[in-house]
Structures are given as C-alpha cells and as structure tokens.
Amino acid sequence: MGVAGRNRPGAAWAVLLLLLLLPPLLLLAGAVPPGRGRAAGPQEDVDECAQGLDDCHADALCQNTPTSYKCSCKPGYQGEGRQCEDIDECGNELNGGCVHDCLNIPGNYRCTCFDGFMLAHDGHNCLDVDECLENNGGCQHTCVNVMGSYECCCKEGFFLSDNQHTCIHRSEEGLSCMNKDHGCSHICKEAPRGSVACECRPGFELAKNQRDCILTCNHGNGGCQHSCDDTADGPECSCHPQYKMHTDGRSCLEREDTVLEVTESNTTSVVDGDKRVKRRLLMETCAVNNGGCDRTCKDTSTGVHCSCPVGFTLQLDGKTCKDIDECQTRNGGCDHFCKNIVGSFDCGCKKGFKLLTDEKSCQDVDECSLDRTCDHSCINHPGTFACACNRGYTLYGFTHCGDTNECSINNGGCQQVCVNTVGSYECQCHPGYKLHWNKKDCVEVKGLLPTSVSPRVSLHCGKSGGGDGCFLRCHSGIHLSSGLQGAYSVTCGSSSPLRNKQQKSNDSAFGDVTTIRTSVTFKLNEGKCSLKNAELFPEGLRPALPEKHSSVKESFRYVNLTCSSGKQVPGAPGRPSTPKEMFITVEFELETNQKEVTASCDLSCIVKRTEKRLRKAIRTLRKAVHREQFHLQLSGMNLDVAKKPPRTSERQAESCGVGQGHAENQCVSCRAGTYYDGARERCILCPNGTFQNEEGQMTCEPCPRPGNSGALKTPEAWNMSECGGLCQPGEYSADGFAPCQLCALGTFQPEAGRTSCFPCGGGLATKHQGATSFQDCETRVQCSPGHFYNTTTHRCIRCPVGTYQPEFGKNNCVSCPGNTTTDFDGSTNITQCKNRRCGGELGDFTGYIESPNYPGNYPANTECTWTINPPPKRRILIVVPEIFLPIEDDCGDYLVMRKTSSSNSVTTYETCQTYERPIAFTSRSKKLWIQFKSNEGNSARGFQVPYVTYDEDYQELIEDIVRDGRLYASENHQEILKDKKLIKALFDVLAHPQNYFKYTAQESREMFPRSFIRLLRSKVSRFLRPYK
User: Fold this and answer.
1) pLDDT for 930-959, tens place per residue?
2) 19, 53, 528, 819: which could join 301 in a potential S-S bond, CB 3.0 to 4.6 Å?
C-alpha cells in the first residue's frame, strides 16, 4: 500500500514523531477523551472499545488504554482514526505493482491481466497463457502459441477459413478466394469483376499494399508481456519499472536488485528528533526495500505493516504473501467444482448444469423448457432429461417418437388380419366372421351382418352471440391422445371395418350400407391448442341451442379431431417452426342405408343429398372456428378446442388440460386404471366392472362379461385381464372366460381372455401344456439377438434391414418405428433404427442444420443437402456448438458449406473431424449450399447447427465479434455458444432487433456472464461511435 504524505517527506516524519510522543504527553497532562469528565481519586478503567462508547470510524481499529482509548485506521485506509478514507493503491506511479490492470477495492486492491495472460504466483506479474494446451486451441489442424494469443495454421493443401480456426481445401482454378495464391494475409473477400479484396482480423490493420496485416496492441497486447504502445512501425513493448526487458524485446524479467536508496531529504528531516526513534525509522521504513514486505507496505507508529492483496494471506514472518487455495475451505463456496488459480479461483458445474451469474451456484438446465428437445413428452431430471412417447409410438434416437408397428410382433396378437395404423393398430376378420369382444379373435357370424350402427357423434350449429356457434358431442367410444406443443387428438365413435381397405375413395359401399367420409382442415394464423373447460356463460349456465333453431344438425358414426400448432419444416419431421400458426383437422364418417331410400330418391340420390348437407355443415363450422365458437362436449363437459393467446394484462395461471390432474404443482395425465372426472376436475379410479389401460382418458371401458356373470375384480383395473373371470395366458376357452383349458402341446398363448392358442409351427412341440410364448417351443437351435427362428427351414435367419431383435429365441423381428430403418441386417437394438430424412430449403430468419436422426447416431451411406437463401440485404451467421464425426485420415464423413454445389465456389466451412469446442462465423457468400455425407461404414452423433440471418448493416459488428479470440478463450463464453436457450435469445434479437425490448436488463444480466457483456458492450460502443 502507499504511505500518506510520501511526496512530502518532512511532513511524514513530523506526523510519525507526533504519533509516538502523543500518548506520554496526554498522560502527563491528564488529558481525557472529548466529552468525558474525570472524578477525583483512583477510578476503575472503562473499556470504551468493548462497550461501543468510542467514536472511531467504521474503517478504524479501536485500542483501549488504561485511562482512554485510541483509534487507528485499518490497513488499506488512511486518516487519524476518527476519519478514515480508502488508500488508492493503484494511484501511484507503480500501478500498485501490477503490470497490467490494477483494481482498487475498499481497503485493498487486486491485479488483473489482459485476455491471453494469467496472474503469476506473486499476484502482480502476468504470464502468457498457452491456449494450445487445451483442445488444441480449437484449431482444426495446428495451433501455435504466441505471447498473449495464439494462431491456427493449416496443413499443406488447405488454407485458414474466415473463422480463423477451421481449414478449407485449396483450389487452383481461376482468380478467386479459393485460389491458393489469392495473396491475402488474413481474410479474402470476392470483389466485383472477378477480383479479390483483403481484410484483417480484429486487432490488425490492413497494410498499404492492401494484402498484408499489421499487428496492433488490440490483439494479444501486441505480443508484449507488460505494456504495449502502437507506433508507425508496429507495437513497441516496455516493462513495469520493477522489471527489465528480455533480449527478445517482448518478455520482461524481474530486476535482481529492487532495493530503493533512501533519499537525502528522508535522512535530514529528523535531525532534531529522538535518536532511538530515528534509528528504528531508518531500519523499518517502506522507503527501504519495501520494508521487507512481499507485497504492500504501510508505515505505522510501530513500524512497517505488511499486507497482501485479495486472494493471498500473510505468513507468520509478517512479510511473505502466499496464495490462498480457496477450494480447500468449503469448496470455495462452489456448488460443484472448484479450481484454484493464483490470487483467486474458478467454479464449474457438472454436465447438465449451468453456472449462474454469481459464478458459484449451479442451476439445473431444464432441457424440457427448450424447443426441439423431445417429440412427445419430456421429463426433466437433475443434470439430464428423458423423453417418453405416447401410447402406440416407440422412442428412437433418444428424443424422437415413431409409430410402432404392432403387427410385426406375432401379428399383433390378431387371430386373422392385423392392420397397423398411426399410433395404434386393429385386428380385422375375414368375410363371414366378426371381431370378438377381446378385439383380437374372430368368431363365425351366424345369420346376416347388421346393416348399420347407431350414430355415436352429433354436430349441432346455430346462432350464438350474433354469429354461428357449433358443438360436437361425443356419446361413446371416446379416446384422447396428446402430442408435441399442446397438440392433441380426440376420437369419437368407431370407424367402419372397411376403413383401411378404402384409402383411395371417400365413399365405400358394403351391402345395403354406404359409408361417406370427408376431411377438412382449418388454419388459424395465431392460437394455441387448448382442450380445457370452456367458460361459456356466467354462473356455469350451459348454452342452449334449441333443435328448432339449429342451422346444422348432423349425426356421425365416427369423428377424429386433431389440433396441432405450427407447420412442418423439411428436414425436421414432427417439429413445428411457426408456433403461432394452428391447424384444426376434422375427419367425419357417416353411413346411409337402404332404409332411407324412397320411390323418388334411390341410394345414389341419398348419398348426394348427404354430401350436400356435409358441405353446408363444414361452411358453418369454418365460421364457428374462426369466431372461437367451436366446442367439444365429452362426457358432459363443454371444452374449448383452441384459444388465441391472451393479452399480457389478461394472463393468468393456466389450469391443467382435460385428462390431467395436479401432482406436485405439475399437470400429470391420469394414469391407467383411472379416468378424468370433468365435474370434479380430477382423476378418479375406474369403478367396479370397468377398466382403462391408457393414460389421460375421460371414461373407463366396461369389462367383458360372460353369459354367467362371475366375480369382478376391485376398482382401478388398468388392464382387461384384471376384470376377473378371464382365461389367463397359456389358457383359452370358447368365449375367453372360465372355465378354461390349457394350451395343448405345440401351441402357446401370451395374452388373457383368448379363444384359441397359436401353433409353434413346423411340427415343433412345447415343453409342457399351457405355454405362454414361442420361447417355450422346443426349437432345434436357439437363435441369438439379431436373428429369428424360421419354422420352415428350422434355421436362424438374420433380421432383414429395417427390423431388429434384442432377445434370444424369438420367431420374429421387430419393425423399426415410423420412417426409420437400419444400416444393415442383423440389428439387435432399437438404437440401430435411424431416420434418414434430412435436407431441404431452410427458413428465411432462423433455423437448424441437423444431421439425420440427431441426437442419435446418423445412418451410414447417407447424403443430405440444404440451402439457405436469405431475403435481400440479409447475411448469415452460423454457430457450430460441437460436431461429432469419426476420426479418419481419409475424411470419410464430412460437412461442407459453400456458395453453390460447385467444388470451386467460395467455401465458408468444411470439416471431417470431431470438434467439441464451439465456433461462430459469418457466411462468406450471401447464400449457402450445405452438404453432409457419410460413407458406407461410419456413424456418429453428428451435429445440430443453428443459424440466423441478420441485416447486412450489422455486418461489421457481427464479424468483429465472431472473429475475436476472446469469444472462445473463456470456458464461460464457450458454454454460451453451447447453451440453446441463450443462443435462441441472441438469434431472436439478431433476426428481429425489435425483440430486444422483450428482454429486460435484469434478464440479460441473469443470462450472460459479466465478461461476455463487457466484450459485447465494447464492440457495440465502437460500432456505434461514428453515429454519436
């Protein structure tokens, strides 16, 4: 620390003498502290310091004396004790001993270093950081460390891309930036008429020859260890006064003799003073060898006082400072990891957690709050998350859901015909048979088939509130399923048995019955799917639509209503890009029969009349949808189909949707064995005699009953087999109820309530009666995973491409879900099923370039091509958070971004390696052609690369930011480029600057580390300075 009055030596000695002589003088004179009287005779001493009776300054120390007390300022402060002020240690000519920046703090100070340097163990000097030691500095090929910075270099045949980290293949054709002899020292830009223009990285200036780049002090401190000054000949280095210059002209060495001579004025100022005091002052003064202090020295009345900067502790000798390992005490206050550094420490977090702005606390990253995490349901866990799929779908690629082909496993358990549908399947029977109550077996029909089924759905529309309003009422056969972003589907009634056989026609005839089908989609520009209780009228009054005033009154056999938000993006199946858009699709199915035929109108005439009524109903329904007057009535509940987003002032805490109840302040679907009671708005156990094997439903299905009703099981039956009285797996009977028989030898049955057993096939026997699976059949060889047993040849066959088998001894292979397939035959796991869909034309403002099947491994032998064509006067910014490709010498798999498909066109980015350190860069061309290719034998996790297009007026600012090495030097900065939530916020503002006002200053501070805000603030200020 500095000493008060050091620039006035005579005054300093006078003050010290006065402080030494003052206590004896006070005693001799019988002095008392101001404001206190003294009584005659001896008196017991009062400790004013302990009782708080002193008037010492808050930054002073109180010392009790026999008759009084005295105040002295704490180390780092100056004054007479009753008034103390902080000493600015950074204000002296030595800069507090700091070679870079000195930060004054109350009672102390701290030295900090420029980017590219780290604090030495003495807490004052700054040493170069070798960035190449960690992850090769982020360089794709070679990293070369230099003082205060580092440089990336490329192998022969490559040149450094604009992002200064990755390398691009050289081309030798034509005069362009792809030519290896373009002549630019740093960045090459194509100019009109086939010429090229050169630019320099931040911290460099373009030379007069318009090709070379001259280093300045703004990059890596100009290569100087201590001080840098820009001159006409380039940076000029100098050293702190306590150091001398190394012969390399850049590094600084500590001087061998730093003892300062005592000035003549110091020795003559106390000629008339006490010799004892003079001797002690001459021996102990901060003016001589810094008082022997390792760091800061302060002259006091009792001699010198040594102190240390923050992050160091004074040793027992009272002179030496030692770095404090803060991590040894309560882990430095860090939640997870603590890393000690000289003079300070850094906290870090485990994977799946984020360091908060206090730089100590770690907060779980809620991946489920981010877009594009899971296709269906997302469950957040500390440090991770898990995706789940709706019933009828299978999880693949960790986050995606594809339709399960139930028919691929033992024919779906169907006795005759199995038909797979999206999200489900159904069993069907051959002519002359009808489906058993168990929905899988077929029983012979005696007599004629019924000609029609009573309608289960009705649509009523009428005038309501000055416009059309419609109610769709479901009476039975209700089924709910939910999807991504609030999407849902409601099915009412039962579809025609021939529905799946008549895909190409809207009408189908069977005997005297004609089935009419129609589908309509309504698009709303803004809104949100919301299947929740409708507040139609005050006091809970239900709307009245008298039948005589109904403009539409129609009955249907089957209706499927689907609500989804957003449109589909090519290359991103099942993921919406425009959440404000909403689509409501309704499929209707009704029947006409011979009973409606009259003498003047045959069956064909009846069909035409019905179709005409349907068209009128759809027109009315369309008006009701756009007026938000379309409602569902399920199990007596009136429900909204969708809602427009409320105004900010109207937003309230939203209630749970239909089929969901509250659990631990979250909305959770009613579990199997329960149903949603709309009146009580909660989940209720299925009553006796009913069951429900799906989540989030509004009714329970009645248990099947035998001719002689047996005992039924207790409530909460979640499966038909719990209804009681059913034949168990390995058994069968004529109606599926007891009394039951064991499956004969050579047959098996894995399900309950069945009327027959499946044969093993191929003449195979079972080990015992009552077998429950094919694995009980005595095969000649046990097949391993990835194979199935062929009962004709009695050999194990590899599962064909597009299927897999994870178990031993199976007679089938499981079809891959949805549109996925496997790379090869003989697959053993669902993870080997991969979606190959990719490529396409991407959006105008923001989007993602994603390897197929991401975050699962991408398929082998695949090729994807994307194009980005921004609107006029917009440029492209790309961030590669990380990319995982197999490590190979011959670049088998690669990602390239060019202006066009031509290999000679301007290339922005090219890589064939794993690259875990993030990088950001701007496109070298106004549009981009992007290709990813994998060879026939490779597979890896791949990549998810976000991009944004921005106004070209910001080109200079954006390039200044992404080319600055400081953006990648800090681990905190690297985490920003990997944080999907932060990148989305940054891109949101870049794409639409007016959205900046959506984020408050507090939100910005909570999102970004202070160092990142400082980096951006300096660049934005410099960018805007010409306009001030």
Assistant:
1) 999 998 877 889 999 999 999 888 888 888
2) 19
